[in-house]
Amino acid sequence: MTVLDTPAAPARTREPQVELYDFRRPLTLVREHARHLEMAFGRFARQFGTQLTARLRVLTQLEFEQVALHTYDEYVSLLPTPTAMVLCTVEPTRQTGVVQLPVAATMVWIDYLFGGDGRGDDRPGRELTEIELTLVRELLQHALADLEYAFAGITKLALDVRGVQYNPQFVQAAAASDTVLVATFTLRMGERTDVLTLMLPGEHMVAALQAADGSIAASPEDRLRAERAQVDLARAVGDVPVEVGVRFTPVTVQPRDVIALAVGDVLPLTHPSTEPLDVVVDGVVLARAALGSHGPRLACRVVSVTEENRE
């Protein structure tokens, strides 16, 4: 029996997936902004660990892991249930921030505060009593006070602890589509390791970073690099081809007139012969122009420019 070699089927090439980017609500941090946030959260983490070590009398470390922008709905979907979501008022915007950590970790804090050995209480569904909540609120309030120092070079930031909730799905700290800034930390206390997250209003933090770009630049080299990047971006955008159209005033007709169109029909326009035409790019009117000719070709001469649409 003869076995014939058959050519292998060509591998299917995956179609590139294009994701729309909303410049009004970005979900990606600029590299420089991410670097400044990492430095600020790193300072906060060191101070937070020092505060807990002093209050609990056990070696505690808070290590910064990462920072990212999410929608609030995405952030909530990543949290375990139940968990302690400590709601805070963010000053000066009066928006809501969240410090999230396992309930069992707060029980260990309370055990240490009362002179225990840090066993805590791992019973599922356990919630803080009023006395325990008061102790946790006071402990967190002292630790969160270091945020103002950590973010002094970026924006004025302070958190005031309000209360705690345990089911993320029922906490409406922001609208589902709102952009939030989420910092993730690893909390090591004795032999125990937990994950802690800090959620802040995203739009306020991004706006503060943009406003502080000049003042928080690390060095003259950074500023020079940013200026060169801006020049390169302007040059690249200036070389992008765009389609420019000249438009008469639209005329309204009935669908039956459109269907009945035939060669030789005349559509009367409502555009006055003395009025200039619209010069448009992607439907945006950028200028007005008078119709004319340039040699054997039609042309138009720009007579006015719409400044407000050129930004």
Descriptive report:
The protein is of the alpha+beta class and 311 residues long. The chain has 2 domains: 31-220, Chemotaxis protein chec, CATH 3.40.1550.10; 244-261 and 269-309, SpoA-like (Surface presentation of antigens (SPOA)), CATH 2.30.330.10. The chain has 8 helices and 10 strands. The longest helix has 26 residues, at 31-56. The protein is elongated and about 95 Å long. Helix 1 (31-56) crosses helix 4. Keywords: Bacterial flagellum, Cell membrane, Cell projection, Chemotaxis, Cilium, Flagellar rotation, Flagellum, Membrane. Its main location: other.
Task: Please write out the topology.
Blueprint (H helix, E strand, L loop, with lengths): L30 H26 L3 E12 H6 L6 E8 L3 E7 L1 H11 L16 H15 L1 H5 L7 E8 L13 E11 L2 E10 H10 L8 H19 L5 E4 L7 H5 L17 E5 L2 E11 L2 E9 L6
Antiparallel strand pairs: 1-5, 2-3, 2-4, 3-6, 5-6, 7-8, 8-9, 9-10
Helix pairs in contact: 1-4
InterPro entries: CheC-like_sf (IPR028976), Flag_FliM (IPR001689), FliN-like_C (IPR001543), SpoA-like_sf (IPR036429)
Membrane topology: Peripheral membrane protein
Family: Belongs to the FliM family.
User: Whole-number radius of gyration?
Assistant: 30 Å
Tell me the series of helices and strands, N- to C-terminal.
Answer: HEHEEHHHEEEHHEHEEE
User: Strand pairing plus helix content: what structural class?
Assistant: alpha+beta
The CATH topology of the largest domain, please? Chemotaxis protein chec
- The largest sheet has its strands arranged as 1-5-6-3-2-4
Which regions have little confidence, pLDDT < 50, spanning 5+ residues? none
Most strands sheet:
6 strands, antiparallel
Say how many strands there are. 10
Mind telling me which CATH architecture of the largest domain this is?
3-Layer(aba) Sandwich
Give the overall silhouette. elongated
CATH superfamily grouping of the largest domain: CheC-like
Query: Distance N terminus to C terminus?
Result: 75 Å
